[in-house]
Amino acid sequence: MDHRMTRPAAMTQARPAQAGLLPKRLDRAVSWSDFRTAVRYDPANRMLVAVPAISAKRAEHPWLGEPTALHLRSADAEVFRREFEHGAVYWSERTGAHEVHGEIAARWIEVGGEASFLGLPTTDELRLEGYRTPGNGSAGGVAHFEGGTIAWTARHGATIVHGMVRDIWALLGWERSALGVPVSDAAVDATGVLRGCFEHGTIAWSPAGGPEITITASEASASSGAPGGADRGSLDEVPSGFAPHA
């Protein structure tokens, strides 16, 4: 996975932010008067860090377009955001400023945005450099959040990977592993096992049984077109007691 904070090649035509999908919040708009007042009377106000950080992120990604609203502050004053023509930038003291846009933003908002188990973004959208389709080059993107990861590909859409499934996928090499990219959200099945389905196999995890990794194609890494994919030996190196933290 390429950790340069750039837009995925397959998403050069960013769609406008879908205001109708935004969850209901008790937010307050931040005016220029508020900012000047904080400068003069409240130098410890988070606004004095958040507003410049959001502006700097917008300058880093000019394709976000023009702002469509004032800066907004959450009811508990922990999170600031500003919406633009083609995405939004969120800031908090613990995560810094990061942009979200397109299909990944829509999926994140669908499950509840920053109020969901995913929390706030901890990276901008990154290219899935290890996932390629014939003739298209890099054809996907990924964004990491406090509680999980959302991966997007033209073939499978935006899918959520979280918990131990995300941690094991990361250990194996993300999309460059023999498993490839996720094809559906990781979820707890009827037996209480957290299971994630990928193009070439599955990752299952339970506290009692630990990790169980299944590869469904012997030439998975070759067929995915991912250079340096994990082989069977590297998969066997995951110990039964493996329990990293995201």
Automatic annotation (TrEMBL):
Record's signal peptide: none
UniProt xrefs under InterPro entries: LGFP (IPR013207), Rhodanese-like_dom (IPR001763)
Annotated spans, Disordered: 219-246
Domain of life: Bacteria
Residues covered by the Rhodanese domain: 126-161
Protein name: LGFP repeat-containing protein
